[in-house]
Design goal:
This protein is α/β, with parallel strands linked by helices. Helix content is 42%, strand content 14%. The strands form 3 sheets. The protein has a 4-stranded antiparallel sheet with strand order 7-1-8-9, covered by helices on one side. Strands 4-3-5 form a 3-stranded parallel sheet, with helices on both faces. The chain has a two-stranded antiparallel sheet with strand order 2-6. Helix 6 (178-187) runs parallel beside helix 9. The termini are far apart.
Amino acid sequence: MAKAKITKKEVKEAELVVETAPVESAKVEAEATEVAETPAEETAEAREAAIAKAGKRSAKAIKETEEKEAKEERKAKTAEEATEEKPKKAAPPTRSRLERRSKKFREVAKLVEKDKQYTMEQALELAVKTSTVKFDASVELHINLGVDPRHADQNIRDNLVLPEGTGKQIRVIVLADVDDATKATKAGADMAGTEEVIKKLEKGEMDFDVLIATPSQMPKLGKYARVLGPRGLMPNPKTGTVTFDVKTAVKETKAGKVEYRVDKTGVIHVPVGKVSFEADKLHDNARVLLEAVVKAKPSTAKGKYVKKVNLAATMSPGVLLDEAAYVK
C-alpha cells in the first residue's frame, strides 16, 4: 500500500496540541484544587445566592425563618419544663345550689322534704313558715305545663279575677274621653282622661301598674309603644285593658285581676296572695287559678299537660304540690 502524505499544516497542528496539553491539564488541576479548598460556608452562600437569583427566597428571608423556628422551639421547650415542674392544683369541689344560699334560707329549707308532694293545705302552711323576709311576702304558684310556646295555639295567655284579691294596691290610669273618664274615676281609677294621661306619658312617668284605654284612644299610644311594651303596660284586648266598658275593667283590676301567660320554658308564674292572708283565702285563690289553667288546655298539646306545680313565698324554698289532685 502506498503511504499517505502528511502535509506541513497537519504537522504544525499536531505539534500545537502536544504543546498546549500540559497547560490545559495544569489549569484543570488548579481549578479542582481551588474548589476543594473553598470553605463550606462560601459554597452555601453561593448556592443561596443562586437560588435568590432564580426568583426564590433570599438568603435574608431564609435566615429570618430559621431564627423564628429556633425561637419557637425554645418557647415550646420552656413551656414543657414549666408544666412538668409546676404541680397541678386540685379543683375546689362545686357547691350545690342550696349551699350557696343564705344561712336563713338553708335553715328553713330543712322544713321542706325534697321530691315530696304536699297537699294544698300543707303547702300553704309551709309557705308561711318558710318566709323569713321582713316585709309582707307574696305567695306565688309556679305551674310547669307540657306545651310549646313557640306554637301560637299553645302560647297560653289569659286573665282572671282572684276571689280574695292579690293583697297589692293596684294603681290604674285610664285613657278615655270625658264621659268614660268620669265613669272610670267613680269606679276607683287613680287617673282618667286624655290630656292628663298623655302629659304623664310624655314626661316618662310610669308610676302606675295598669293602663286601660278605649279603642278610639289607642292610636294616641302608638308613639309610646316602645316604652310601654317592654314594661307590660301597653293596653291589649286579650288582657281586657282595651275596652268600651272602662268602669267594669277598673273594678276588676282593683279587685284583684291578674294576667298569666307561659314563658319561653312553658312555665306560668302568678301571685295568689300575701303571707299575711288567711289560709282559706290563699286556698281559694290558688284553686281558682289552677282550674282556669287546666281549662285553658289547648287541643294540640300532647302528653302530660300539668307536669309540676310549686308553691313558694318570696325568697323562700318551693313546695311541690300533688298536681294529680287538680287535673281531671
